[in-house]
Amino acid sequence: MAESYDTQTYVQYGQYMEYYINGFGLSNDATTPNSILDIAPGSCMDSTGTYQLSSNAVIKVNSAVNGLNGLDTGTVAASTVYPVYLVWDPVSFQPTGAMISLSYTQPLMPFGYNAFLLIGYVVTDSSSHFLKGYWTAGNASARQFFYDSPQATAVTAGAATTYTAVDLTKWVPLVNNTPIWIASAFTPGAASRTLKMQPVNATGDAVIITGQVTAVVVTSNSFLLAQIASAKPEINYVVSNAGDAAALNVAGYQWFV
């Protein structure tokens, strides 16, 4: 099995080490996709821009394990978004590892490890299994994730005629102004009626979908921001008339390392 390697970056006084990430793409494990997340080889700076974290081998994070290369503490919960962290020991130079955690600031670190970077998110289903999806990587800090199948929100036949919040807690990171993709199916009760969406704290219409023919479904993929309200990521939606119906599903989201 390939050995991982780790390096420490020393910054000369007066110099600034630019933040970056290369590689470290996420994927469901090919053999055990429900409980193991694979992290591809890569290199990046830690959250403080002090240390360089590197690995030339795939890191496997097992949800059944507590500690390094597992869940930091507790038991994996159902229908939950977990931040994914790289972790490293810059004192005794233990190998770069990874952890999932409920914390959006830092995981409960293994002994000796104090360098880390949040590199993405993984989501569990109602059975506490990792949902299948696809993460982008490459030499970029702006990355995207798409579910293998869009995840249904509580709005399956929505008919709200005033802007109404849609809770996205189960499928979107708890980060304000997260760009998301919503896959919608709008059934207008009459031609020219509309489905509109906006960030939950917005006042204007971010997305307008217009039905052309009575009772003919209009399917769309829309890009807008999820914002935090009442400690939840949310968007708002509204339809023209109570005789309309909207189904809203989360297709994916974007995040920034």
Helix content: under 10%
The description of the largest β-sheet is: 9 strands, antiparallel
Overall pLDDT metric: 93
How many domains comprise the coordinates?
A: 2
- Count every beta strand, where a strand is a DSSP E run of 2 or more residues: 19
Overall geometry: elongated
Structural class: mainly beta
Rg, nearest Å: 21 Å
Fill in the keyword field for this structure.
mainly beta, 7-stranded mixed β-sheet, 9-stranded antiparallel β-sheet, Jelly Rolls, 257 residues, 2 domains
Describe this structure in words.
This protein has 257 residues and is mainly β. The protein has 2 domains: 21-140, no CATH class; 149-256, Sandwich (Jelly Rolls). The protein has strands at 21-23, 26-28, 36-39, 42-45, 52-55, 59-66, 70-71, 81-88, 97-100, 115-123, 133-135, 142-152, 164-167, 178-187, 194-199, 207-210, 218-229, 232-239, 245-256. The two termini are 28 Å apart. Mean pLDDT is 93; it is low at 1-16.
Summary of the model, kept short:
The chain is mainly β and 257 residues long. It is 0% helix and 46% strand. The protein has strands spanning 21-23, 26-28, 36-39, 42-45, 52-55, 59-66, 70-71, 81-88, 97-100, 115-123, 133-135, 142-152, 164-167, 178-187, 194-199, 207-210, 218-229, 232-239, 245-256.
